[in-house]
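For reference, the entry.
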Amino acid sequence: MTPGDHREAARRLDEAERTRRQIRMISLDYPEMTMADAYAVQRQWRALKLARGRKIVGHKIGLTSKAMRAAVGIDEPDSGFLLDDMAFADGGAAPADRFIGLRVEAELAFVLKAPLSGPGCAIDDVLEAADFVAPALEILDTRIFRVDPESGKTRSVLDTIADNAANAGIVLGGRRIAPRGTDLRWIGAICARNGEVEETGLAAGVLDHPARGVAWLADRMGEQGESLQAGEIVLAGSFIRPIEVGKGDRIVADYGPYGSVSIAFV
């Protein structure tokens, strides 16, 4: 793909989000598309949003499950950006008609008190740079068809990366967890939709330690001459399967002694 192709693909994604109309897979139009192309499209889309006055508040990490990476044929996670208009209040409501294909995941969020950069970033570096860790929900959406209506082809990981790694929102819980105060691997969540348990999981499902994904992101950004900044939020990766949601649904993730986090879609 050329730089012009990247810009055009980003424009299409932006229009899809604004009109709530999914688009054809970018990988179908550009069969030679690479992971570098996918991230280039994502950066161009981010630039469009920043030009309209949005602010970066953090980043998300996805595909942290070994099974999920195997399913899409890659050997590393993916990542996306978080903007100020993607944040929703814990216990509050989000307009369902803002999204196209809603899903929700439970994870831990790291809020940084110091910059973090690669190469060679390690779990201990992440714990040192983190101000606190908090329960979180990630709101997922897809501006690209998951299954192409014409060919029947399933969306590729390249399409997902270009589509901001499917991110559309974040809900940060109010309970702060000291990064070194507990074994983060054993923090778990019971996730319910409208009072019925849908999924459960432990944070160890995220690369064996949720901080490992943050270290991976710092290293990957370092390769691009970028770094994680103090004050930014990093969603470390889900440890449950995505829960499908729609208008009228309420999701509550119970983290036991570490509090809970919830959102309703209205």
The domain at 55-265 is CATH 3.90.850.10 (Fumarylacetoacetate hydrolase; domain 2). The mean pLDDT is 94. The two ends are 39 Å apart (CA to CA).
